[in-house]
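In the lab's daily routine, each protein ends up as an entry in a very long ledger. A line of letters takes care of the sequence, but it says nothing directly about the fold. The fold becomes a row of whole numbers, each drawn from a learned catalogue of backbone shapes. The protein below has been through that process, and both of its lines are reproduced in full:
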Amino acid sequence: MFPVFLLVLYTLASASQIPFQNPGSATSTVESGWNNLASAKDANFTGHLIFDTTNSLLHRWPNTRYRNGTSLPFRTIVIHFLNICRPHDRLWLHSHRHTAIPRPRRQLPPPTVPEWTATDPEHAFNFCRDSSIVNNSISGCWQLTLVTTRPLSVLYFDGSSAAKMGDGPLDAQDLLIFGKIDPGRARDARARINGLCAWGREFGIDGYVRMQVNFEVMLCGFSNGVELLSADYLAAWLKGIKPPALSGAMQASFPGRPNTYPSFQALELRRFETILSGSWHNRYPGETRIHLDLTRLISFYDTSLAPSLIAQREGKERWDHRLLGISAADMAAVNSRLRAMLVSDIDIGSGVDWKTLFHVVVDRYADRLETLAYLLNTTTPANLRQRTRTIQTHLRVILTPYLHYSARPHSIGGSNGTDHAWALPVWHACTTTHTAHIHRNPTLHSQLTDSERVLLDALDGTNKEICRVVVRMWTAGVYGGLDAFISGNENRLTSTLVRILGEWRTDAHALMAWLDWSVWVKCRPMCSPEEMCYLPTYPYFGILDPARRDDERWKRPQPRCIRRFEPYSEL
């Protein structure tokens, strides 16, 4: 459920009409907290972080950028409309070495222990190596293709939660199964998957969704909910190699890499194709074969649930936010809410389509704020008055659905530009339009789960700050005589225009930095057809030289172009 704007042009006719009744003007009263356009959000407000992490769930790009997960969406259902006669079919692929002579596919048994499966074959094939690391021949490997026979109930860890790193990506998993964060167990993958499956057994959890270079599903069992569709013995591109084979001169960037090692080029090719397959899910709609139940979402940014993390985040950039330092009491509260959500089989919730509602807001403002930033930093046209009027028009365009005809100051010439009372209804309307139907409907509001109330507060708080800044910038332009629809002093001094432009830049930069949407993180200039835009991705930067893990390029990933073909770029 989400709001639909119906733009109606009325033509007066002789026929009698029954008009819509106004459900109550959102601008009739100014509530507490709506009286000062200069008042920014509290420093400890985390709603914008909840908004962004929720909007980024199952998107590879933002979860590669910020590896440390902070959300736990539950009862995830895996559904894929593979064909019309099997509406719940879903393909997974898992490649593994098999030391015996290949047997007919009908005789190959499925795994008997929890295993990692890939959602894309390119990711699975990355583990396809020669059946033996002793001989010098390249033979093949088994690839099992599985199909679901029912929707599966799984738990999703956001961030780069499959990255075997001890500085944050595994925090939520370790707290869940080990009771503490232990960086020394970062590579203890078997204990982690066994522990998670044992923990989730009482709740009927079939597996866990994680991500690194691409998405994976850690399946806890293969006898219920999935069946073997095929077992194919594929030709391997690479014989099994030990990590020491990738040391020394092999790490030199192209074109200095030696060509004497027969499998190295195949290794680079497979790395790139794995990254490429993951990039298909970089941005909205992300990994669509997995559906999230946001009515049962837990966010560690929820300050009412985990207040001890407020102090742990203080003074740190978002890259460094993690769960280390959460109090025992807060973790107990998280576990209690988690268990309560998992034991309930009742279809709860309001029915609000939060994923769509969040994306509507991002769609509405991402491009326009990016365009605003461009206009504020360009020197074209050279005429300052013309340039500032263009920016003012852009601000008015953003606010057009909320600008009532009465939204204008009583006086421009005699005002010092500090009277914003006339613009407060615009701010209120801009903020509340997307969620007013939820607040005004008592039945709908009463059906919200605790998780949905957190999402609603995050959406309202994020929208309120966006609208506050844009309305504040627009009113400055009105008082500067720059608005084409509100007459004023159009002969402002150049110094006044310079001041307004400077204030605009400050406000816009602060807003976009506060929102920190990954949709603005892109390669500039755009990559050529022989390249793709890439964010440093685990595990490749760790394999080549673990000592480089402290490099800022890995700690704070920035986009850059890498080659699609030989010679491949250094990752």
Summary: The longest strand covers residues 226-235. The first helix runs from residue 47 to 55. The chain has a mean pLDDT of 83. DSSP finds 17 helices and eleven strands in the chain.
